[in-house]
């Protein structure tokens, strides 16, 4: 914490918990208060340099004063019109509804008079787009491992209790936390549907990743649009080049509607078949998630299904159950970390830990995620019995151009 920098006010400071020291500094310590005013500190987070930016946000590295590194997605409220505000509240509610090893976690939302800060799981390995542009296409094995994780995330999002359509899947929104651990990010265009047959009519996303039905000005079904975008991501991963590219939007539109793409012949047959099963112009003929999971290309991949996340509400219930003598190791660990930081029984009872706009929720979710990671929830899929792909140079065309997401009619 920063309390040492602030200096003990009197002997009492030594007896304060980290939480008490921090809250005291935030009210009394001049340096801390100044940092809060100038935005170098937001809530319990110390803000550092920029690590990314998007159409609507700047993303900075930050450190929770009591726990660990996070990413802060910062949005300027004064620049958000009614539509952008609606999308932002969906982004928050979608992220709150999800807990999956391959979906970026939302820990907390901190609001200041001018800005909104989404406190996110930090993905320090950069995004898939930059990785491919800066290095090269992924090997067949690495593609399998990355794609299997994206598939696992999308399968989870589409399961009935979650039912979230991403609508902006693209390589720029696939982040790495480690060398090969992948997280789907940026739920700014996501929507929660009551069932998969709901026709959607808001055209959003990034044109090179948009399915043909989006260009045909039709209503569309969410799952198929996400599946199409996964096909584009897969093509980009294994070839280093985009399947649909053109100098103008009109030409790109035609190219996508006509489904005019060619898979390079050196792409392994099973992968070619998967790409062709996904990139079909008629959405009803396109592969469904389970067909993708069962495809030949992914046959040698073992998913770490046993590590699906535990129900946070169960952990929460156990945390609240102070009489319980048979606490699971994980719950015990979180409770003792919270206690060491200075969070009391009252803090937990007064805050039901469901409201993202609470610093107690923030710490709780960070600790819970830390415990899940220890348990192995971020374990990677394993490719069994496969030879590494020979080192071939991928197509280097179409590099360096980041794809901007738009909320627009794609015509
Ligand atoms: P756009 O709609 O243009 O894609 P956006 O404003 O919705 O952008 P994000 O896509 O969420 O913003 O983030 C922009 C960039 O910031 C990402 O491409 C990535 O480089 C970086 N970034 C976002 N979230 C994280 C994170 N959790 N950890 C590390 N970097 C991140
Ligand atoms: Mg983005």
TrEMBL record:
Top-level taxon of origin: Eukaryota
Molecular function as annotated in GO: ATP binding; tau-protein kinase activity
Gene Ontology biological process: intracellular signal transduction; microtubule cytoskeleton organization
SMART domains the UniProt entry points to: S_TKc
Record field: catalytic activity: L-threonyl-[protein] + ATP = O-phospho-L-threonyl-[protein] + ADP + H(+); L-seryl-[protein] + ATP = O-phospho-L-seryl-[protein] + ADP + H(+)
Keywords recorded for this protein, A-Z: ATP-binding, Kinase, Nucleotide-binding, Serine/threonine-protein kinase, Transferase
Chain spans, region Disordered: 1-20
InterPro entries in the record: Kinase-like_dom_sf, Prot_kinase_dom, Protein_kinase_ATP_BS, Ser/Thr_kinase_AS
Enzyme class: transferase
Single GO cellular component term: cytoplasm
UniProt: ATP binding residues: 73
EC number assigned by the record: 2.7.11.1
Family stated for the protein in its record: Belongs to the protein kinase superfamily.
Listed name of the protein: non-specific serine/threonine protein kinase
Organism: Amphilophus citrinellus
């Amino acid at each position: 914490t920063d309390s040492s920098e602030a200096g003990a006010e009197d002997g009492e400071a030594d007896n304060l918990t980290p939480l008490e020291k921090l809250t005291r500094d935030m009210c009394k310590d001049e340096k801390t208060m100044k940092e809060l005013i100038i935005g170098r500190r937001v809530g319990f987070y110390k803000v550092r340099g920029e690590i990314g930016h998007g159409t609507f946000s700047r993303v900075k590295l930050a450190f929770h004063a009591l726990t660990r590194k996070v990413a802060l997605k910062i949005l300027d409220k004064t620049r958000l019109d009614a539509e952008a505000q609606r999308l932002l509240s969906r982004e928050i509610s979608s992220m709150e509804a999800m807990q999956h090893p391959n979906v970026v976690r939302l820990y907390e939302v901190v609001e200041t008079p001018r800005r909104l800060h989404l406190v996110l799981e930090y993905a320090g390995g950069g995004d898939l787009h930059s990785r491919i542009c800066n290095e090269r296409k992924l090997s067949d094995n690495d593609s399998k491992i990355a794609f299997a994780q994206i598939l696992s995330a999308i399968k989870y999002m589409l399961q009935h209790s979650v039912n979230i359509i991403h609508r902006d899947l693209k390589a720029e929104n696939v982040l790495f936390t480690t060398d090969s651990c992948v997280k789907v990010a940026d739920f700014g265009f996501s929507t929660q549907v009551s069932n998969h047959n709901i026709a959607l009519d808001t055209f959003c996303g990034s044109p090179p990743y948009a399915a043909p039905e989006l260009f045909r000005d039709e209503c569309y079904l969410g799952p198929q649009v996400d599946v199409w975008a996964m096909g584009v991501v897969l093509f980009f991963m294994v070839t280093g080049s985009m399947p649909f590219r053109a100098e103008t939007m009109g030409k790109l539109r035609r190219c996508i509607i006509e489904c005019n793409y060619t898979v390079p012949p050196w792409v392994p047959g099973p992968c070619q078949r998967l790409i062709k099963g996904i990139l079909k112009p008629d959405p009803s003929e396109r592969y469904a998630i389970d067909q993708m999971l069962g495809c030949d290309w992914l046959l040698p991949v073992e998913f770490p299904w046993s590590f699906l996340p535990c129900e946070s509400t169960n952990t929460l219930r156990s945390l609240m159950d102070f009489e319980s003598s048979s606490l699971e190791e994980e719950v015990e660990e979180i409770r003792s970390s919270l206690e060491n930081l200075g969070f009391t029984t009252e803090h937990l009872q007064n805050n039901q830990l469901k409201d993202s706009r609470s610093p107690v929720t923030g710490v709780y979710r960070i600790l819970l995620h830390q415990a899940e990671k220890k348990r192995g929830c971020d374990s990677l899929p394993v490719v069994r019995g496969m030879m590494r792909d020979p080192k071939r140079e991928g197509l280097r065309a179409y590099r360096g151009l980041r794809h901007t997401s738009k909320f627009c009619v794609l015509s």
